[in-house]
Each structure stands twice: as C-alpha cells, then as structure tokens.
Amino acid sequence: MLSALGFYPVTPGRETYVIGSPIFREASIDVGGGKRFVVKANRVSGANRHIQSASLRGAPYAKGCLDHADIMAGGELVFAMGPRPNEAWGVSDDDRPRSSIDEHLIMPVPYISSGSRVFSDSTVVGLASVVPGAEIRFALSAAPPDGDSPLYSAPIVLRATTPLRAVARIDGRPPSRVLAADFKKVSGGRRIRLDTKYSTQYTAGGALGLIDEIRGATDFRAGGWQGYHGADLDAVVDLGSVRRVRRIAVSFLQNQNSWIFLPERIEYSLSGDGVDFITVAEWNRGATALDEAVRIEEFSTDRVARSARFVRVFARNVGVCPAGHPGAGEKAWIFVDEIAVE
Fold first, then answer.
1. pTM for the complete prediction?
2. Local confidence band at 62 (pLDDT 50, 70, 90 cut-offs)
3. 12 and 6 in contact (C-beta within 8 Å)?
4. Helices in the chain by DSSP H: which ranges?
5. 188-341: which CATH number, 3.40.50.300, 3.30.450.70, 1.25.40.10, 2.60.120.1190?
6. What tens digit of pLDDT does each residue of 114-145 get?
7. What are phi and psi of 273, to 5 degrees?
8. Pick the CATH number of 111-185 from 3.30.70, 2.60.40, 2.30.30, 2.40.10
C-alpha cells in the first residue's frame, strides 16, 4: 500500500520513506488530531508513471525521500506525472535519500593477523584492528585483559601452549568484546606430512590439527575436523625419534546427510626411516550402507608393540555418494581428527 501511494520505507526502523511512483490519482491518510495527509498524482496513468515535479503543502519539493514528520504534519503532497523520467528532479546530493551509518557506536573485536593456532616449536602471533589508531591490550591467560594489561606494540612469540585474550579501545567508543584464542603446542615435537590435500574449507587449523590433541565434535561446521573432498587421506606422523608404539587410533566423522562418509578402507603402518613401511592394522569396510545417523567412529589398534619413528595413516574415500543418496554420483567427503599415537 505504501508503495502504491508513492513512497515506502526502504530501511525498517528509520523515519525516512523513499519516493517511488504513485498509482492513485488521489489518496488520503487520517494521521490523527483532525489532520489528513493527501497524496495527489496529476495525470497519472499507465503511460504517465514518472514524476516530473512535486510540491509539499504548496512549496516546491525536490527531495527523493519523505520524512515521517512530514506525513504526520498533514497537508498535501502533489506529484506532476509524465511519460518519461525528469532527470533534473531529485538528483542533487542533498535531495537524494541516504543509506549510510555515520555514527560508529560499536568497536570491532581485534583480530589475529599472523600466527598458527597449532605449532610444533614456536609461533609468532600478530594482533590488529580494522579501526586505525585503536589501542589493543592483551593477556596471555584465560582472563580478559584490563587497563593494566600489556599494550600490544609488536608480534608476540609463543613457545608453549598459551591462551590469549585481547580487546580494542579508542576514544569515544565502548571497548570491543574480548577476542579469545588458544594456541596449542604439539607435544613431543611431533610433525606430520600430508601426501593428499585437505579442503581449504575444513582445515582443523592446518596439518598439525590432526595431532593437536583437540578433538572435533559431532558438528562438522565448528572447525575441529579436517575434510577431504573426493580424495583419500594419506598422512605420515613423525614422532621425532624411534619410539615403542603401543597404540594407534584415528577418529572419523559420519554425517551422510552432509555427504560425509566413513572411509571404505583404513590402514595403519610403521617405519623407522619413513620409506619402508610395515602394515600393523587395516579395516576393509566393504560397500557403503546408507545411514542417517551422525556419529564419530574411532578405529583403534592397541596390539602394535613395535618400535618406529614414522606412523602412516591411509584412509580410502568412498569416492562418490552411493546410489539412493540425494547426492548420488557426487564427490563424497572424509572428515578426520585426531591421529593418536601412544
């Protein structure tokens, strides 16, 4: 109805109505207090649907918008209509409707500009704010920083598992909410090599995310899982030195409604030099059955009892979603986290 009158609220909550094109020759609104707001569109028709000029309460009106107060004051808004747009009406900067936020009442949370969430030796963490000149204070603890906390001025070197909290401030605005980030050092100096590529959409924090001792939950969107789209998992964990391996366990996620399937084949193998591997456990799961249950399944072997420095985990993707699945024929996913070696 408002658009048919010739104006409508583009941004709900604002008291500004953008002028469009009226379709009624005359309409009257009871605005209370014995007043009426009358909208007239002279010569309006299917052909004459473009505003040529306007007047409000008898005075020329060139603005492309209307304030709510103008309506509530009553009186007449009169449009002169024609077959073509008048490109000289309502075109100045002052007459155009504005859609902008000029008051900055919210302070954005600072962000991490550099550094790895999971690391093996050390990581260098940078902090930044999208607001020029903002002050950032941080704390290397789970408690939020306050006015006495260190002022960030240079990247922070972390050599151990460390929680980090930070806030940004600038004069005239309330402080930002707290940035909370936890940095994890992989225990025992372990490293990992990935011979297949994971999706950049689901990284679990990078390659080290598979050995960071942080487990993914059933919600794959939370960022704890590493995803392989139409690809196998082929990972080699370097223990740093020859160790007596007792147990190997790897967890996989199943969420077939999101095209995430358990691998059709899993194999664990050990090596002393990273070249020649001996298989110590394998699972051949056969044909994939359709199953809507969301679950995490751990494939574990605790009868290894061999010395090795390198542990290889191979998981074969089912390839494509099977017949009967809504995505039949499309690439399937493997979601993996965590590779545990004891």
1. 0.60
2. very high
3. no
4. 2-5, 68-72
5. 2.60.120.1190
6. 998 888 889 999 999 999 999 999 999 999 99
7. -120, 0
8. 2.60.40
